[in-house]
Every structure is written in C-alpha cells, then in structure tokens.
Q: What sequence folds into this?
C-alpha cells in the first residue's frame, strides 16, 4: 500500500463528501478518526469504499492526528482536513509521484475559499503546507490551535503543482464563531502556562497583523472579504485577552482549565 489519506472529523457531514470524492481516485485507503459526531458524518463517510472508520475521544488536534496516522498502512500519508479538496491538477501531481517518490515530504499550495470566493491575496495567501510525507518521518505538535507538522531535520520537502482548496467559512457568522473558538482555546492554553492577561499585547499584535494582511499582502484587493479576514484575525488577539482575564477571575485550577482544551472538537 503506497498512500493513505488521514482525516479527523467532528460533525462534518455537510462538507465531507467532496473531500472524499477527490481523494478516492488518488489514495489506497482513507483513515477517518471521528470525535463523536452527532450528525451524519459516519453515514456520509461510509458511502466511500476506501474509508476505514474509527472513533476516539478528542484529546487535542495534534494528538488526534498522530493517533490517526498510526492507523494508516501506506508508506506515505496525505494529511487533509474535512473541509479541504484536492484540485484536479493536484490529484495528477500526486498520482505522478505515487510509487516513484522523489522526496520524503511534499508541500502543497492551500487556497482558501471564503464566503464563496477564492482568496489569492492577503494574509492567507500564499499558504504552503506540508501535507504529504513518509509516515515515519513526521509528527504533529500539541499546539491548542493551528497545530504544526514537525519533520526530521534532514527532510527537504518538494513542492507539488496544483492547489488544495480550503473551504473555510460559508458566512460571516461562521467566521466570527470560529474566531471566537480559536481565541478561547488560545486563552486556556495561556492560562495553563501561567501567562497573565495583557492589554498592550493585543494592540501590538492585532495592529501588526491587520496592516500586514490588509496593506502589505494586498488584502484590500479582495474588497469586503479582505477587510473581514484582516479585521477578524486582529480581533482574535483582543478576544483572547478577554477570555484570559475571565479565566483568572474565575480562578480555575490548571488541571481543570487544561481539560477544557479537549472538550471542543471543532471539526478536522
């Protein structure tokens, strides 16, 4: 078995089918580890014959992905989220590598789809991600948000042609809610590490992030979508400090607050 796709899920019935349809002609198996979905995620997944379905309580993104990788049988792993779809050109690029691998790891260009439009400017673009790798050469870290893939130092990734389409948010409301969840998780992580709330930090980081995405990286060319992406990205820093101040006021014990990181599995 050459190539395994690996996905973690939670209530992804609405978005999962296009992801699996694009993977099926490319990979030899699709390993899905679900965190207790209450919608039809399982039924949607099992319509595809290459899917191997598993269930496991959510213990953090990196931990869940590492567990899913351990179940894969392929020499190489294609790690993908439930809201990401391989473009036809990327499908062809992977198929050309399959069986005659030229590298131990590969980068793909992820392109966001935000409120119905492709985003090819601003802070989200270009977004190169290592998603295809030899199974024994990489693992995910334990960051509470935006976990990172750690490669062995000797590995030099090769870039593939084509795009990985990332269907982020269908509406402004969904975007705001996800930003709120990210801010909360970042606040809990900071609280467990004993970091105090700071009102200077969000002004500095938020302003720098907004100006970088809106001006330097051309977010202004995207119209209101560019404004929304830059503004909500900056807003997350301010909301994080509010949550952090609230946690200190509540006086939660570190072990109690740490467990909160494992109770909000927002998708793959």
A:
């Amino acid at each position: 078995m050459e190539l395994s796709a690996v996905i973690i899920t939670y209530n992804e019935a609405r978005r999962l089918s296009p992801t699996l349809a694009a993977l099926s002609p490319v990979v030899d198996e699709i390993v899905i580890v679900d965190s207790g979905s209450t919608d039809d995620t399982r039924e949607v997944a099992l319509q595809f014959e290459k899917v191997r379905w598993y269930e496991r309580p959510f213990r953090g993104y990196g931990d869940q992905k590492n567990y899913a990788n351990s179940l894969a049988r392929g020499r190489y792993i294609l790690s993908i989220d439930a809201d990401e779809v391989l473009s036809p050109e990327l499908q062809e690029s992977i198929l050309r590598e399959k069986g005659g691998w030229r590298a131990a790891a590969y980068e793909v260009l992820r392109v966001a789809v935000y409120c119905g439009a492709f985003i090819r400017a601003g802070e989200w673009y270009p977004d190169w991600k290592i998603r295809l790798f030899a199974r024994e050469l990489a693992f995910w870290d334990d960051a509470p948000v935006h976990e990172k893939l750690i490669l062995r130092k000797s590995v030099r990734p090769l870039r593939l042609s084509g795009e990985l389409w990332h269907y982020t948010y269908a509406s402004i409301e969904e975007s705001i809610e996800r930003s709120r969840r990210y801010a909360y998780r970042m606040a809990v992580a900071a609280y467990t590490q004993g970091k105090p709330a700071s009102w200077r930090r969000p002004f500095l980081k938020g302003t720098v992030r907004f100006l970088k995405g809106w001006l330097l990286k051309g977010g202004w060319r995207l119209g209101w979508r560019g404004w929304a992406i830059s503004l909500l990205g900056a807003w997350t820093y301010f909301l994080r400090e509010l949550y952090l101040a609230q946690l200190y006021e509540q006086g939660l014990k570190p072990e109690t607050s740490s467990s909160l990181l494992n109770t909000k599995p927002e998708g793959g």
